[in-house]
Amino acid sequence: MQELESWLILNHAPGIGPIRAQKILEIFDKPENIICCQSKERKQTGLFPKPALDYFAAQNFTLIDKDLALLKELNTNIIHLGHADYPQLLSEIPDPPLVLYLRGSKNILSMPQVSIVGSRNPDAVGRRLSYTFARDLAQNGVTITSGMASGIDTCAHQGGLQGNAGTIAVMGTGLDRIYPGKNRELAHKIAANGLLLSEFAPGTGPKAENFPRRNRVISGLSLGTLVVQAALKSGSLITARLASEQGREVFAVPGAIKNPLTRGTHALIKQGAKLVETTNDILEELPGMLQLVQSMASEVTTKDKDSSLLQYIEFEPMLIDDLVSKSQLAVDKVSAELLELELVGKVQMLSGTRVQRIA
């Protein structure tokens, strides 16, 4: 049995969520051991609900066939917890997904990200703010992450597609189910020029309980979460709370005090979220990753030496995926060096996760 198949089998086990799965893996070390052990060993842990015990005892794992078929049908990647391409920030949350289904460029996962969330029924001001913040952040090397819901999420993705760093849509359904349906065209654009991501297996429809789970992934991938227009009972406040619990930054855009769509963002500001008026208000607060990139770029300038990656970058636009293949370098190293080279003016990042060398 291949390693990926064993992770998919564990991911499909009924009654075993991310937290319970981690406790189980502390005992069995890897999914293969869970599958191959005796039934009594699983039962003795006290961690397996009866449906899961029956599932592993039957050894009928045809559910993963649909996952593997999706790999071929939709040009999909599947990565598991502990895989080299699994996002480091996401792995640090208390309940990281066991498996991520990806459609698009997985290289974008290693980019610094800010999530933008908010009302599903914003006014014209909210739509414009979401789009503009997303576009400007993406043009400054920050990937925009959101949930592809109507309203603020949709505008954030549209703005992110206009910048060099692109956008990631975290879905509350399987990758083969686009929700809401009116965002089908947007989903195709993101798959071609960014990344669609889900922890849910193919065939999973829009179940209400899955969207809070999706929200923890949105915040977990990101250095910080920006809330643009949210009522007091908005689901986007859940994402902001999760971001805070995960130790990430929370930003909020203020608005007119009589507008019910700003009461949620004002509440966040009262609770300690940073009031945001411009893109710079966000950029100056992002810790670690962006500061490291700027430091590395400064070092390159001082030493006046070329990156080992530069020799593989063409003067015509090329896909970053192709660059990874040509250079045989790790995805995170390619992303870091590209940011260095862009900051010192040696390459230009283009939309659609493309790059070209500057003469």
Helical content (DSSP H or I, runs of 4+): 40-55%
Given this structure, which CATH class of the largest domain is correct? Answer: Alpha Beta
The CATH architecture assignment of the largest domain turns out to be: 3-Layer(aba) Sandwich
The strand order across the widest sheet is: 1-2-6-5-4-3-7-8-9
Counted up, domains total 3
Largest sheet: 9 strands, mixed
- Residue-averaged pLDDT: 89
Offer a few descriptive terms.
single chain, 359 residues, alpha/beta, DNA polymerase, domain 1, Rossmann fold, Arc Repressor Mutant, subunit A, 3 domains, nine-stranded mixed β-sheet, three-stranded antiparallel β-sheet, 17 helices, 12 strands
Structural notes for this entry:
The chain has helices spanning 3-11, 18-28, 31-36, 39-45, 50-58, 63-73, 88-91, 124-139, 152-160, 184-193, 210-221, 236-245, 263-270, 279-283, 289-303, 320-327, 331-343, and strands at 76-80, 99-104, 113-118, 143-146, 167-170, 195-198, 224-228, 249-252, 274-275, 318-319, 347-350, 354-357. The protein is α/β, with parallel strands linked by helices and 359 residues long. It is globular, with a radius of gyration of 21 Å.
